[in-house]
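Lab notebook, design round three. We kept the backbone fixed and only want residue identities now. Task for the bench partner: fill in a sequence for the structure below.
Input structure tokens:
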């Protein structure tokens, strides 16, 4: 019993210590955000690296997720004679939940792991120390542009995921299941609200992008500067980012739709 309590206490202290280091790291990165904005070309470069290179997997996943939603929704709605509401089901599911959440998970797996590996290699090869020796602040030159790029990239990826998913649902519903196209779009337009649905999904994507990128660059900066340390940091990034996305999704959904 004593050993279990001791282990729990040590784990709690380790978690609090990591949160403290991550918070200090975030504060230093935010202080360097002004320099990143002034040199916005660095941010554009990172948007391409983390956003554009993730676009292909996001679009393909969105297409198939929308198609599956249409198939599953039709099989359920047809039992109640409500297949005309298929467009509403597909759109609301994608806009409110699956768009930002799945895009966030894909972003964490593709861009987050790449960010951690990149910064971890910079640390292990002493590139970050070299920048400091040349009086270049890594927080302004390396970390802040990447944090801002992730903040900007994920909402755009989530919007594209949702749009392609709706088109995939339309393809299956209208062309495969013979749902009337006019009814599909009119019901969707009448049920999906801009402020209650679209903006709430975009807000989730903004928060997910910020948190996932923060975790990724912190894990790269905080890793042990060895090949094994970089590999472990990359694994931690994917695990922590995925759990953060799912946990924040529940919290934000509870706040948005129950308050």
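Proposed sequence:
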């Amino acid at each position: 019993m004593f050993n279990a309590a001791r282990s729990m206490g040590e784990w709690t202290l380790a978690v609090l210590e990591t949160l403290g280091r991550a918070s200090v790291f975030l504060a230093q990165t935010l202080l360097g955000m002004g320099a990143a904005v002034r040199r916005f070309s660095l941010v554009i470069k990172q948007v391409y690296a983390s956003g554009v290179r993730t676009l292909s997997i996001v679009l393909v996943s969105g297409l198939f997720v929308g198609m599956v939603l249409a198939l599953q929704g039709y099989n359920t709605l047809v039992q109640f004679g409500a297949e005309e509401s298929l467009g509403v089901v597909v759109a609301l599911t994608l806009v409110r939940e699956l768009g930002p959440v799945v895009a966030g998970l894909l972003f964490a797996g593709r861009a987050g792991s790449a960010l951690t590996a990149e910064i971890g290699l910079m640390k292990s090869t002493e590139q970050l120390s070299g920048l400091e020796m040349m009086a270049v602040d890594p927080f302004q030159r390396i970390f802040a542009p990447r944090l801002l790029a992730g903040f900007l990239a994920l909402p755009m990826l989530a919007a594209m995921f949702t749009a392609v998913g709706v088109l995939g649902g339309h393809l299956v519903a209208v062309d495969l299941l013979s749902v009337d196209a006019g009814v599909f779009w009119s019901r969707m337009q009448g049920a999906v609200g801009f402020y209650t649905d679209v903006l709430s999904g975009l807000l989730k994507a903004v928060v997910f992008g910020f948190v996932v990128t923060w975790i990724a660059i912190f894990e790269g900066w905080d890793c042990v500067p060895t090949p094994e340390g970089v590999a472990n940091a990359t694994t931690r990034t994917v695990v922590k980012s995925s759990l953060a996305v799912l946990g924040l999704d529940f919290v934000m959904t509870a706040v948005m739709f129950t308050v």
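Keep this in mind before ordering anything: The two ends are 42 Å apart (CA to CA).
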